[in-house]
Specification:
The chain contains seven helices and 18 strands. Helix content is 23%, strand content 28%. The protein is globular, with a radius of gyration of 21 Å. The chain starts with 20 loop residues before the first strand and ends with a strand. With 370 residues, the protein is an alpha+beta fold. The longest helix is centred in the middle third of the chain and has 16 residues, at 213-228. Strands 1, 2, 3, 4, 5, 6, 7, 8 and 18 form a nine-stranded mixed beta sheet that branches. Strands 9, 10, 11, 12, 13, 14, 15, 16 and 17 form a nine-stranded mixed beta sheet that branches. Bound molecules: 2-OXO-4-methylpentanoic acid (COI). Residues 87, 250-251, 317-320 line the site of 2-OXO-4-methylpentanoic acid.
């Protein structure tokens, strides 16, 4: 039951490599109202934790009751931000089963981030085993109401107590779980986006492609500015030319111009290789809708809007899935598709969420049961 339950799809490694120890809680928490979850406010009964020590590698994998952790105030993560995180979800199918969506993609990205941040890599099989084990222990926390899921947050922090600037010799790999509803209060309704012209999120050679807290910390000021002006989020432009589109808020971004779908390419290393982004590209290709990954300037978007060729724009991410853009402000306001969700955004949302929640067939083999 704990790992590799009978219905597990054997496409993933089922060789138990981590010897996980279990300390289960005696006092289970009261579960929140599934219709009022919001995002990231509630945490389940347990957590996974594993240590890294130089010379010993990753060791002591364990599942514990959800609890505070104790760290030295000198722990390097607090001072030099050597850390990373991931985000994926577990979904309740109509048959009551629990499934994950492309966890191997998150694990691959986790190790790419680790490489950039000089954090030791985690054996992908071990990472998958840890994710499955913690979800299995807290499987009764996977919500069953429409649109709700269990958000899985693996993260690694440098725990070495040392104030010199160097690579940490000690780390903690932790996985916590949070039952979630819609990321944005507006749900799938289109959001208003401000094109940021002062601050940037990433530059070539930086950490834009990596999932690190620093990227999000640096973005907060733009988000604050946008919110003060009545916008939900920011459209980020590149840090060098200040004209090529990077991401929208904490999501990848897509535009539908003249019937063709375009999204910024990953080539410059600025863009997070989103799992939802990759899945949208694959779905669009499977439907025969032209989709290209390339540089897109804000001028091209403005021109396309002026000539009536910009029919849709939307953000993609694990948390919000698809977030349509109803208005873009780049000096002047551009209203997209009358502020309503467009047909391509809707089709992607319906199909992705259908596969994720097990309501539609999964022709790509993206899901795996826990
Ligand atoms: C995602 O949607 O994948 C995200 O990374 C959002 C998260 C930072 C809350």
């Amino acid at each position: 039951m704990i790992f590799g339950s009978e219905n597990a799809v054997p496409k993933y490694s089922v060789i138990s490599m981590l010897d996980i120890s279990y300390e289960l809680t005696r006092t289970k928490k009261e579960k929140p109202d599934q219709t009022k979850l919001g995002f990231g406010r509630y945490f389940t009964d347990h957590m996974f934790i594993m240590n890294y020590t130089e010379g010993k590698g990753w060791h002591s994998p364990r599942i514990l009751p959800f609890q505070n952790i104790s760290l030295s105030p000198a722990a390097m993560v607090f001072h030099y931000a050597q850390e990373m995180f991931e985000g994926l979800k577990a979904y309740r199918t109509p048959a009551g089963e629990v499934q994950l969506f492309r966890p191997e993609k998150n694990i691959e990205r986790m190790n790419n981030t680790n490489e950039r941040m000089c954090i030791p890599k985690v054996n992908p099989d071990d990472a998958l085993q840890a994710i499955r084990a913690i979800v299995d222990v807290d499987r009764d926390w996977v919500p069953s109401v429409e649109g709700a899921s269990l958000y899985i947050r693996p993260f690694i922090i440098a725990s070495d107590p040392y104030l010199g600037v160097r690579i940490s010799n000690e780390y903690l790999f932790i996985i916590i779980l949070s039952p979630v509803g819609a990321y944005y209060e507006q749900g799938i309704n289109p959001v208003k986006i401000y094109v940021e012209n002062e601050y940037v999120r990433a530059v070539k050679g930086g950490t834009g492609f990596a999932k690190v807290g620093g990227n999000y910390a640096a973005s907060l000021i733009g988000q604050k500015k946008a919110e003060e002006m009545g916008y939900a989020q920011v459209l980020w432009l590149d840090g060098i030319h200040r004209k090529y589109i990077d991401e929208v808020g904490a999501m990848n971004v897509f535009f539908v111009i003249d019937g063709k779908v375009v999204t910024p390419s990953l080539d410059d290393g600025n863009i997070l290789p989103g799992v939802t982004r990759a899945s949208c590209i694959e779905l669009l290709k499977s439907w025969g809708i032209p989709v290209s990954e390339r540089r897109i300037s804000i001028d091209e978007v403005v021109e396309a809007h002026k000539s009536g060729k910009l029919s849709e724009a939307f953000g993609t991410g694990t948390a919000a899935v698809i977030s349509p853009i109803g208005e873009l402000n780049h000096g002047e306001k551009m209203i997209l598709n009358d502020g309503k969700i467009g047909p391509i955004s809707q089709r992607l949302y319906d199909n992705l969420t259908g596969i994720q929640w097990g309501k539609l067939e999964d022709p790509f083999g993206w899901t795996c049961k826990v």
